[in-house]
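If you are new to this repository, start here. Below is one unmodified record pulled from the training split, so you can see the exact layout before writing a loader.
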Amino acid sequence: MSRWAGRLALGFAAFVLAGWLAGELWLSIVGPADIEAVQEVVSARSPALTTLARTVTWAGSSWLLVPLDALCCLALLRRGMPRHAAAMALSLGGAIPLWHVVKLLVSRARPPVEHLQAVSGSSFPSGHATQASAFWLSLALALHAAGASRAVKRSAAALAAAIVLTVAASRVYLGVHYVSDVIAGVLLGGGWTAFTWHVLREPEVRAAGERGGG
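And here is the target side for that same chain:
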């Protein structure tokens, strides 16, 4: 346990550093295209799209994802999959402080447009995009590990990708993030989840390989 805990701690620090450097680099070279993209999206607002965006953005909210994550962990534990439950918990559980720390380090101001949702703090990266990417990817990986059918695994992967992209788009539409904020969030959340699952499942994968090679 101490071994993978140390690797996760080092990995977390590496992701924080990568997110911070990416944010600072982007802000140092960004031109007017970033704000122009937000303004273009904002100009296409309509009552129906606004209602849709305010609804789908909840798929990246911690108020929804934390309870769902807890239920998924309990289901994995009941199936006798404690390592997978830990990966599920740490994927979202690590993604939340990850984006908080990177936000504090980068301190990018929110887009200067009308915000259709109350927000606080800085803009880079998008917390919703980070959390959505972490949870929905982790759920797809959990279904794969649980032995779901090929059709279910493919559907889960496609649905996870669609939800993450929709949440990311909703944050830009609502005027609370730049496009680069949501891209960074998706990469941070997805990268952290992939790393977490790799670390926690590595002994299991290695053992399976040894059995197969024997």
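Two things worth knowing about this chain: Helices lie at 2-29, 33-43, 47-56, 62-78, 82-106, 127-145, 150-173, 179-213. The chain has one domain: 2-213.
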